């Protein structure tokens, strides 16, 4: 689907379909949703009636002129419909390619000890299925046993396989992707019709598109302007008649259409749809247009350390004794504490043992009670059958646990911990009852290019805060290496929410990226929550955006697109309203010259004739819509600048440009139109 995403703005089939849709959208039931263009449509109908039944309206015989006005008005409406249809069409094309991945898959459902082959559509939440090498994953779910490499290119467009494994933050799998090695047991987590791909299709098809708050506010402004101009124009006729000037209805309608904000009114919906579309092109799924818009206003960004700023596969690289413990003894207890620890950290300890040919008595774990890792306690381990308690975990957590039992802390623990942490590693202490035996050195690397990206964010005026469960030394090292503005160490899940709430209470909009189940509450609390596709189902469900490439720094692109969306809307509104000035100078003098030919002095723009002046203004008003479609769809160019500088820059380009362009445009059109009139 990636080739679909990068396709050009206007392709043959897309344009044909959009042309057809522009006609269908003339249906008043649809038009009324866009009040500005609805007013234009009504005007079009009135002029049509006057053209077809000229005598009935007792107007002068201007059938040719009226016909021309009718045609231009009709095209004005069609152009607006075309813009919207084109934007929608691009979304539908994406949905089409997604639907291809959503085929019927046969699943090996586990029923007790036997396997039953059922179609994927019959799978329900909670069902357990086995997927082996070469098979498609029949639905969204979590790996509960085993490890496999999975080809997710159907949804991410990324061909490199990803490892999915039970436990930890890499256990979620998506229906429609393929297992390319090994075999997993998984639990289905979504009902039919509610899978990730189903939701993606609904989203890109725009089925659930709702107007965003900013869009509603702008719409209200546009409607108010339309009503004001409607009143002005409707009262103008009688007032002019009172002083003996006869203004004709088609001329008044032309005036009205030129004055109401048709440019932005016609492009507004396309701008919104295209904004969502651009996010999708970056392989990010936004669950609502509102989220994309909020991204444009973000002040603060909260990032998880492990897996977000770093690669996140924390691997044991050293196991060292502390105090009086021996090296083998420390390693053995590290291994025993990890026997049932399915997290990448836990498994890496056992791998380290194998790699270094270290032996340990695994039978010690038999009959013991496994204590899974919890972000809350920051420990994991096992309660042995003989009563001994084995733990590994964050050094502070283990210290507290040992002291609570009346144990002693080895003298060299602090120094050794600091060494590991200052190198950016994560130290895990190993303890049995009240004795600390050693330290595991978990290594992780900062993703490349992070510093540049955080610099960009700073230029946009966005503050970055790294939140980690790790100790302050590790946090400080990684924070420095990655170049974040601030960090919070030893944070528990509720601390992340607290930071977000604190920022929000100051009136700031907060974005957060994360992948773990413990990130889910914070992802939900944030204004923009970007979950990694590699993350857990809980994280993806709580977030309002999912990055299919699992690249948390993608939040920068999302923010740029959000800003671009807001700016595009603002720029085109400014342009649309600034346009009015020139149209005043073209149309109002023409109207009065038509009634009182002696008022030739009013013709400041030196237009050919009153009728050609009106038609020229109307033609300019119509063709500016298709001319701006590329800008509406691609968005105005965004540069990381402060809000104030962006505003003044845009006012200059779109405000001044919007005032000057129509003078030139109308003059040029008039020169051509005047040849006939
Ligand atoms: N399997 C494990 N067993 C014991 N302790 C662990 C395990 N995994 C992590 N820890 C400890 O718990 C701390 C918190 O881990 P967690 O993954 O919850 O961090 P976090 O809040 O997600 O932040 P980040 O992922 O950015 O480090 C880690 O810094 C580490 O000290
Ligand atoms: K207009
Ligand atoms: Mg984490």
From TrEMBL:
Membrane-crossing segments per the record: 36-57, 63-83, 216-243, 249-273, 581-599, 611-631, 651-676
Superkingdom, natural source: Bacteria
Keyword Coiled coil part of the UniProt annotation: no
Residue positions of the active site: 304
GO molecular function, one term: P-type potassium transmembrane transporter activity
Chief place where the protein resides: membrane
Keywords: ATP-binding, Cell membrane, Ion transport, Magnesium, Membrane, Metal-binding, Nucleotide-binding, Phosphoprotein, Potassium, Potassium transport, Translocase, Transmembrane, Transmembrane helix, Transport
Sequence positions that bind ATP: 341, 345, 373-380, 392
Keyword Transport among UniProt keywords: yes
Enzyme Commission numbers on file: 7.2.2.6
Top class in the EC scheme: translocase
Stretches assigned to the P-type ATPase A domain: 105-205
A Pfam family annotated for this UniProt entry: Hydrolase
Membrane topology: Multi-pass membrane protein
Compartment(s) where it occurs, according to its Swiss-Prot or TrEMBL record: Cell membrane; Membrane
Reactions the enzyme catalyzes: K(+)(out) + ATP + H2O = K(+)(in) + ADP + phosphate + H(+)
NCBIfam families: ATPase_P-type (TIGR01494), kdpB (TIGR01497)
Similarity annotation: Belongs to the cation transport ATPase (P-type) (TC 3.A.3) family. Type IA subfamily.
Designated name of the protein: Potassium-transporting ATPase ATP-binding subunit
Organism: Paenibacillus algorifonticola
Higher taxonomy: Bacteria, Bacillati, Bacillota, Bacilli, Bacillales
């Amino acid at each position: 689907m990636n080739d679909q995403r990068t396709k050009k703005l206007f392709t043959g089939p897309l344009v044909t379909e959009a042309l057809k849709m522009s006609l269908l959208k003339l249906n008043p039931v649809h038009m009324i949703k866009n009040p500005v263009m609805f007013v234009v449509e009504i005007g079009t109908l009135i002029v049509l009636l006057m053209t077809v039944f000229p005598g009935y309206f007792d107007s002068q015989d201007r059938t040719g002129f009226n016909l021309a006005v009718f045609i231009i008005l009709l095209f004005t409406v069609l152009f607006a419909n075309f813009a919207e249809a084109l934007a929608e069409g691009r979304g539908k094309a994406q949905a089409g390619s997604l639907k291809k991945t959503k085929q019927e898959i046969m699943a090996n459902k586990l029923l007790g000890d036997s396997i039953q082959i059922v179609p994927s559509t019959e799978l329900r939440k909670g069902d357990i299925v086995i997927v082996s090498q070469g098979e498609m994953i029949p639905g969204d779910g979590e790996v509960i046993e085993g490890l496999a490499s999975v080809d997710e290119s159907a949804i991410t467009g990324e061909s490199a396989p990803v490892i999915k494994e039970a436990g930890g933050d890499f256990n979620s799998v998506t229906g429609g992707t393929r297992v390319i090695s090994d075999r997993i047991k998984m639990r289905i987590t979504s009902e039919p019709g509610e899978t990730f791909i189903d939701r993606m299709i609904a989203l890109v098809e725009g089925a659930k598109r709702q107007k965003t708050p900013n869009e509603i506010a702008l719409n209200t402004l546009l409607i108010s302007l339309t009503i004001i101009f409607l009143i002005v124009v409707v009262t103008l006729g009688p007032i002019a008649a009172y002083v003996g000037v006869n203004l004709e209805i088609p001329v008044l309608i032309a005036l009205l259409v030129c004055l109401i904000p048709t440019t932005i009114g016609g492009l507004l919906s396309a701008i919104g749809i295209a904004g969502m579309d651009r996010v999708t092109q970056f392989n990010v799924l936004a669950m609502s247009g509102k989220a994309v818009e909020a991204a444009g206003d973000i002040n603060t960004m909260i990032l998880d350390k492990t897996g977000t700023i770093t690669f996140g596969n924390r691997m044991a690289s050293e196991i060292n004794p502390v105090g009086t413990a021996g090296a083998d003894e420390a390693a053995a207890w590290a291994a025993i504490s990890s026997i049932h620890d399915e997290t990448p950290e836990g498994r890496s300890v056992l791998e380290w043992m194998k790699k270094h040919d270290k032996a340990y008595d695994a039978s010690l774990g038999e009959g013991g009670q496994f204590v899974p890792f919890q972000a809350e306690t920051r420990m994991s381990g096992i309660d042995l059958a003989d009563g001994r308690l084995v733990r590994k975990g964050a050094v502070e957590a283990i210290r507290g646990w040992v002291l609570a039992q009346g144990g002693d802390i080895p003298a060299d623990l602090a120094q050794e911990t600091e060494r590991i942490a200052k190198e950016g590693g994560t130290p895990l202490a190993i303890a049995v009852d009240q004795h600390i035996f050693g330290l595991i050195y978990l290594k992780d690397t900062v993703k490349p290019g992070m510093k540049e990206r955080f610099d960009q964010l700073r230029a946009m005026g966005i503050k970055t805060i790294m939140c980690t469960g790790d100790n302050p030394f590790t946090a400080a090292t990684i924070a420095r290496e990655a170049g974040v503005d601030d960090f919070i160490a030893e944070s528990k899940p509720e601390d992340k929410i607290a930071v977000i709430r604190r920022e929000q209470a100051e009136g700031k909009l907060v974005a957060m990226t994360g992948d773990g189940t413990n990130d889910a509450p914070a992802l939900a609390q944030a204004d923009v929550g970007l979950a990694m596709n590699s993350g857990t189902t809980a994280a993806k469900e709580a977030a309002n955006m999912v990055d299919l490439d699992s690249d948390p720094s993608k939040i920068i692109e999302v923010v740029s697109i959000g800003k671009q969306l807001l700016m595009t809307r603002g720029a085109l509104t400014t342009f649309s309203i600034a346009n009015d000035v020139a149209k005043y100078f073209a149309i109002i003098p023409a109207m009065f010259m038509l009634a009182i030919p002696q008022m030739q002095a009013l013709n400041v723009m030196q237009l050919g004739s009153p009728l050609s002046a009106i038609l020229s203004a109307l033609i300019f008003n119509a063709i500016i819509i298709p001319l701006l479609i590329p800008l509406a769809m691609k968005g105005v160019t965004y540069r990381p600048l402060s809000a104030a500088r962006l505003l003044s820059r845009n006012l200059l380009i779109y405000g001044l440009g919007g005032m000057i362009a129509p003078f030139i445009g109308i003059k040029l059109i008039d020169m051509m139109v005047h040849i006939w009139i």
